[in-house]
Amino acid sequence: MKIWMTSLFILGLTFGAASLVSAQVDPKLDSTEEQQQKEKKAEKEKKAYALLEQVVEEAQLLRLPENRVQVQVSAADLLWERNEGRARTLFALAAEGVAEMMRNANANPGQEGRRGPNRGRTGGQLRQELVLAVARHDATLAYQLLAATRPQTPPAVTGYSRLDSEEGLEERLLAQVAQLDPRLALQNAEQMLDKGQYSRSLAQVLAQLQTKDKDAAARLEDKLIKRLQSANILSAPDAGTLALSLLRPGPRPADSGTIPTSATSSNSLEMLALSTYTSLLENVIDVALKATPAPAGGQRGANNIRGRRGGPGSGGSGQNNATTEPSAAELEQGNARRLMGGLRIMLPQIDQYLPGRSQAVRQKMTELAITDNSRAAMIQVERAMQQGTSESLLAAATSAPQMMQSRIYQQAALRALDEGDADRARQIANNHLEPGTHESVLRTVEFRQTSEKIDISKVAEVRQILAGLRSDDERIDLLVQLSGNARQNNPKLAVELLNEARQLTNRRATNYRQLEQQLMVAEAFRDLEPARSFEILEPGIIQLNELLTAAATLSGFEINVFQDGELPLEGRNGLSNMVTRYGHVIGLLATSDFNQSQTLAHRFQLSEPRIGARLAIVRSMLGKEPGFRSRGSRFNQNTSIRRGQD
After folding, report:
1. How far is CA 395 from CA 156, 226, 367, 484, in A?
2. 307: which DSSP letter?
3. CB 567 within 8 A of CB 606
């Protein structure tokens, strides 16, 4: 018995020692594996940065300043963490290119209009891209380049170009700087307030500061509210707009001194303490209640004050066509009516936080005939989209402008399908959609249900369903969908399904949709058999080369894909978008086979698409988002929506 017990004791010690040794070895194994991963990552980065320098060098030979600037900005952004000095140099070169474009635009003011609808980026757009890219790394340098590239003659500002205007760019820069340098953002915001400027970006700065620096946020909030309450909002419309943007989200929760989430939009974050919120709301209500009904035949609405033609017989013709500027009193009344219109969508907040003022506000709205507000309807739709339910979209559709209702109902039906309620999706389509859209939604429902219910392992059943589809387009979509469903549990079957899809796409494309289908199959192969992806992409690149050659020949006659004999890296046309898409997929494949991706990028005959593809490779190797994006829809291999252009 003692011998048996002793044996067990020794055996236990043996196992214990073995376990101890194992426990001691595992960290070493983990450490070795971690070191190998670090070395692998370092090797990938080394290749990526070496390629990036080659791309920057090649880009110097490009003729279009906009192409050179785009490459320089992208390269500097990627290089900043590794080589800040080199990145600063590239940002400076990009600033010189932007300044050159701005000078050329001033010297040839009509040239922008003659460039055609497919032109690349303008100097103003690239200036904005440059300044905001720099602001992600160095706020002071961003302000320096903002000043260095400021045009001598500011462009005329319209409602559509305001974001590209000087004021719009400064607003966006101020909001972005708050993420990187809260103290500098606070300093600039205070200087803006001291000058009597009430930029809408101040709300975004406050939201950013509340996530970055509690004391700075409290200081700005106090100064901001005091200035707004002392300002004459009726003569300073920007102050009223800023006040509404601060009030619209509601007050901060009582138990939260700061906002816990990332501040990305002032329209969705509660920025003011409750006491501050109610004080500012009451002040805005007092000012808005001064509004009186607009005179008949006078101004065209509260937010669109226009002068009136003066002189006898003024009907848009004749000698006396001078515009009569509205008086100060008329401007103030217009601003008061605009404020009251802004309060319309805030009635729930007024009922909750200042219930004693609700009746007066509603009476004034009735007096001013503020019964319909398309902006309010748009905000409701946006909120419904963010909420992400089919029911919220249905509720928003009832109050939306009639021209928008069909699109909202269509989105509601698709959302119901995403929620797993196909019957509800059909009901929405049957009750609210016109025949053409109705049929499209029902086909999508049928397609989704088929792909989810089909037993992929039953090959005969799959083939029967495929044979019953109306077109190869639908067969390709279903095959890719089924492959995605089978990928995790049965990779071999997933590859077989993709091979069938490849056979259907293995043809010379006759439109952009077919090129996109080839890309879709190539992307689906990426995680299964990357070599197949490369094989699928190469014929498409050869065809794109032919299309680019034809477009260059026709440039100036039928189409304007090229500008001054060069392809803009971010053109506004189907061909440029497709070139960008191919470059993006090549970039994704680089993590599987860097050398093969480079070889495929070099299959582009023109340097412009080669540069775009190689930049995509660099971004992919460094784990960054794609730089040059198509202006069209984002594509997903698991959807059945028709893509591209026929």
Report:
1. 40, 38, 27, 34
2. -
3. yes
